[in-house]
Amino acid sequence: MFELLSEKIGQVFKKLSGKGGLTEKDVDEAMRQVRLALLEADVNLKVVKEFTAKVRERVLTGQVLQSLTPTQQVVKIVHEELTAILGGGQSTLTPAGHPPSVLMLVGLQGSGKTTTAAKLGLHLRRSGQRPLLVAADTRRPAAIEQLVVLGRQLDLPVYAEDQKASPVKICSHALDRARELAATWVVVDTQGRLHIDEALMKEVVDVKKVLQPSEVLLVVDAMTGQEAVRVAEEFNTNVGLTGLIMTKMDGDARGGAALSVRTVTGVPIKFIGTGEKVDALEAFYPDRMSSRILGMGDMLTLIEKVEKTVDEKWAKDMEKKLRTATFDLEDFLDQLRQVKKMGSLTHLMEMVPGLSALSRRLPEGMDEQRMKKVEAIILSMTRDERRHPEIIDGSRRRRIARGSGTTPQDVNQLLNQFRQVQKMMKQLDPSKAKRLLANLK
Q1: Is 338 exposed, middle or buried (0-12, 13-18, 19+ CB in 10 A)?
Q2: According to the model, what pLDDT value does residue 348 have?
Q3: How far apart, in whole angstroms, are the C-alpha atoms of residue 402 and residue 377?
Q4: Same domain, 267 and 139
Q5: What does the alpha-carbon distance between residue 104 and residue 251 come to, in Å, rounded to a whole number?
Q6: What is the C-alpha separation between 40 and 144, in angstroms, rounded?
Q7: φ and ψ at 191, to 5 degrees?
Q8: Which of 122, 145, 206, 331 is the most interior residue, by most CB within 10 Å?
Q9: Distance between CA atoms of 136 and 39, rounded to whole angstroms?
Q10: Which domain holds residue 26?
């Protein structure tokens, strides 16, 4: 996400910081480099011009060049202006005056509407709501079945009818069903097409009249770049959008659409999809996103992920093991599995200040492959070996390697890494760790 842009802007600031004092010429050259980086990231030309002009004006008229830390002041201004073009503050869902509130998803085929409907249902339930998912996409083959299967996996109610039924009737019946279930939110997956045309817009408008939704969210594929902005403009003009959900943000190294869409359309981004897993949906915070772009990390989102994922009893048991220095390979495997639940290791590293540059140097998929290999090695050990790794000698290493499809060198590497982790755990003062976590929250 924003990999190329983040790397290039980072290089610009590195050059500035090496200069000490800054001149107007330095600022102009930096803004030229930032402008090129934004254009390469597929950001709208008008947005780029406005952004760089605002930053330049604030730097040159704000006594920045005379300050003791001019580069830090420039970074601060760039962060504030990036946050502004991303939307300023967070834009949340607006419920109706009386339940159920209706959230209508619109968009083209292939943008990820059906999967996003299930992700939203999970997000709403975790927020204490009672969602009902509605399969109203009768055009795409298997769309109804896909939503029903996802609902079953997540234990979310889904209203569906035969594919021959009209979307308008399905939506009308779904509202009745929502009232019977006392649902607080109705999430409707509507029809899409491969392109924007009059027939598509008429269908969407007809469904909207029946639903009277409090939220009309466009699901748009971030990887389509400026085409995503054009699609947003068209839907907003014809239907009237309240927000956007940008999917496949994890696969878009440029991210220009996200940086352009709010300024061009005036429609806020409310959520972003960051992966294929059903919980890979994040509320969109402009300030946090601009921090990630500038390599400052995003600790708040990381802490929220930890709180959602890590089981409280597991955390207490782990704390006890830390105190009594009984951390073994079974606990090590447990920790890896907890991290896997939170998503890609590369994505998590992006959120930690100082590690975002390192995450970009990891080969794609390397973290997941390494985790699978470690898991296979530990599972090939006996219980005694997992609890007492010191008993693993040469013959045991060879047996473990054969059982896990790895080499004795791989087993050695894991044991060395584990010993380092174990040593670090023994040195860690649990009371200090507890205070650190309390401060982070």
Answers
A1: middle
A2: 55
A3: 9
A4: yes
A5: 25
A6: 39
A7: -75, 150
A8: 331
A9: 38
A10: 3-85
